[in-house]
Amino acid sequence: MAKRILILDDDPDFTCLLTDIFRQTDYEPVPHSDPREALPLLRSEHFDLLITDHRMPGMTGEMLVRELRKTHPRLPVIVVSGFLDNDTIRDLIRDGVGGIFLKPLNVQNLLKRTAVLLNDADAAGHRFTPESAEEQQHHKLPFSFEPFPCLTARTAEFANQLYAKRGFKGTLTLITPPGTRTDSILEDFAGFEPGAFKVFGPQEISEQSLLAALSDAPPDGPPTTLVLQDLDRAAPADRAPVIALGARRAPFDATPNFRLLFTFTHPVDELFEKGRIDEGLYLLSSVTEVRVPQLADCVEEIPVIATRILARYCSQAGIDPPLRLHKLAHQWLKEHPWPGNHEELSIHILRAAETPQSGVITRDAFTRESHEHQWIDSPSGISSLETYLRRLRDDCVQGALILCEGDTTLAGEALGVPPLSLVTHPLARHPGDASGALSHP
User: Fold this and answer.
1) Per residue, what are the HEC states of the chain?
2) Does residue 262 surpass a pLDDT of 90?
3) Residue 287 contacts residue 170 (beta carbons within 8 Å)
4) Top-tier CATH class for 298-373
5) Residue 377: what pLDDT?
6) pLDDT bracket for residue 425 (50, 70, 90)
7) What is the pLDDT confidence band of residue 158, given thresholds at 50, 70 and 90?
8) Which of 139, 142, 165, 300 qualifies as a FRET site for 374, CA 20 to 30 Å off?
9) Which of 13-17, 240-244, 284-288 has the lowest mean pLDDT?
10) Over 80: is that where the pLDDT of 45 sits?
């Protein structure tokens, strides 16, 4: 059966040209000109590849890809444009675009890249299968879920549990251990149900930002989901509007249809017992809790996840044929404890891919990487030694600022450092500020 390719460009002459080229090379091209109509079409019909312009009326190619990834995380995409700046190119690659071409177009290179992406997509669809047909049937999911292959009971249970919560009301809490692919999980979860998803990092939460996010929320229909990430890392003062929002107190008492999705790096009970969150946030976030598995919970899936990371790297770097992992490397991946979770695994894979031997990444590459880059298991987060020490420093600064009520001079004296070194911290305020208002960088 011929591969179906959606060709999206507001230039009818260029669209007609590409349509003729792909039809003559035994593909089934479908031309379209409006990106706003393309999204419903992609969701209602099957396509094997999307080729899109970037500068189009109503929606850019970059915006289209980001919306598409919510429902089609693996659909191959090629962007063809008359002009792209370096920042946009980097963003497109980050969003999983597999080919970027500038006009005037080299048709032969476009056809070659199309063939590579379609072949890779076919291979990915058959490459990762459980060991037995019985296990495959048991863990087969009726929905798309990219963060885990779901070949083990633990990850399949998590995926099904998350899918079952897709229509949640009020609040939902995800426990995302440090190093978790939280963005990937949120993208798939957003694709389960219609409605807007608006994500806030711990330093982006404020009364003003939350009100702004809800200003265009529809009173009826699917609720707007506010995703508040890593709340245990947010400053205590920044959590106050979250509690008010959850309780629908002023100024949020007249806000329209919304729901709250929290992420914490540790279980809520543990954070509350250790005094890292207060009772108000604990009561709000402990109603429904779903824990994301760590790599240690799904050892047999680690080589599969590693192979996917490597395949994405090769696709984005234009490495053809793609690199592959030696069987002994698979064994090392399963034996390593991975205290840094997916973050650590990604770094190991990408660094090992820099100097492969004969297109194959061996066990030795990971052994060298393990010695060169030290990882540790820490109470405040799992990461490299440098990141861990930086977090310890930030925790000390935050503690001093809390005790000194945000006064950088007193906090500096307590820590034995100049006060000016603290002014960029989110809890810092200038001495003499009688209002006690927090200044955010």
Assistant:
1) CCCEEEEECCCHHHHHHHHHHHHHCCCEEEEECCHHHHHHHHHHCCCCEEEECCCCCCCCHHHHHHHHCCCCCCCCEEEEECCCCHHHHHHHHHCCCCEEEECCCCHHHHHHHHHHHHHHHHHHHHHCCCCCHHHHHHHCCCCCCCCCCCCCHHHHHHHHHHHHCCCCCCEEEEECCCCCCHHHHHHHHHHHCCCCEEEECCCCCCHHHHHHHHCCCCCCCCCEEEEECCHHHCCHHHHHHHHHHHHCCCCCCCCCCEEEEEEECCCHHHHHHCCCCCHHHHHHHCCCEEECCCHHHCHHHHHHHHHHHHHHHHHHHCCCCCCEECHHHHHHHHHCCCCCHHHHHHHHHHHHCCCCECCEECHHHHHHHHHHCCEECCCCCCEEHHHHHHHHHHHHHHHHHHHCCCEHHHHHHHHCCCHHHHCCCCCCECCCCCCCCCCCC
2) yes
3) yes
4) mainly alpha
5) 43
6) very low
7) very high
8) 300
9) 284-288
10) yes
Q: Do domains 4-124 and 168-291 have the same CATH topology?
A: yes
The more confident residue out of 166 and 86 is 166
- The domain made up of 168-291 has a fold known as Rossmann fold (3.40.50)
**4-124 has which CATH code?**
3.40.50.2300
